[in-house]
Write a structure and sequence with these properties.
This protein has 174 residues and is mainly alpha-helical. Helices cover 73% and strands 0% of the residues. The protein has one domain.
């Protein structure tokens, strides 16, 4: 039920704010921005939700400071470190691919990596606030940024095909 409240809030935000704004700008913009919105909604689902029902309890648990030793879990072979590293890389590959498309195909590598870093840092700082059982780790930020970089590499490799598809979508539906 807690997750449902957040999902409904995200859906209402999309329908009443973003959909209207993006639809006016054309089908290509609507498609790309909707894909990014869906992607970011899934990232929120897996990293921070439930958010809205947790807000009243943010100060009811101690805040755990971020682990600032990179790859300590890997070095000490704690838990499922390999799985966590791989999942953190995979999680941000779509960001690296979609971000330049949401910026009218013009976002450069540095800007994409910077925004991927900011998104990851935001998630890591908010996780222990929203849920006292969650922790934040500099390794997650590093692996998220690596995923964003790989996503941007995929964007560069598949850019001609992606542009061709988006251009066909734009002209077909106009």
């Amino acid at each position: 039920m807690k997750y449902l409240i957040d999902v409904i809030a995200l859906l209402l935000l999309y329908v009443f704010v973003f959909f209207r704004k993006w639809k006016v700008r054309g089908r290509e913009i609507l498609l790309v921005n909707t894909l990014m919105y869906l992607y970011l909604s899934f990232v929120l689902y897996f990293t921070l939700m439930p958010v809205l029902t947790s807000i009243p309890f943010v100060l009811n648990h101690p805040y755990s400071p971020m682990n600032m030793v990179p790859f300590i879990d890997v070095l000490e072979e704690r838990g499922d470190f390999f799985r966590q590293v791989i999942l953190n890389v995979i999680m941000t590959v779509p960001f690296g691919f979609l971000f330049p498309l949401t910026r009218n195909r013009t976002a450069k590598f540095g800007k994409t990596v910077w925004f991927c870093f900011l998104m990851s840092l935001g998630i890591e700082l908010l996780q222990p606030l929203i849920n006292g059982l969650r922790s934040s780790d500099v390794t997650d930020i590093i692996t998220n940024v690596i995923g964003g970089m790989l996503g941007y590499g995929c964007y560069m490799i598949f850019r001609p095909v992606t542009f061709w598809i988006l251009d066909r979508f734009k002209t077909k539906n106009e």
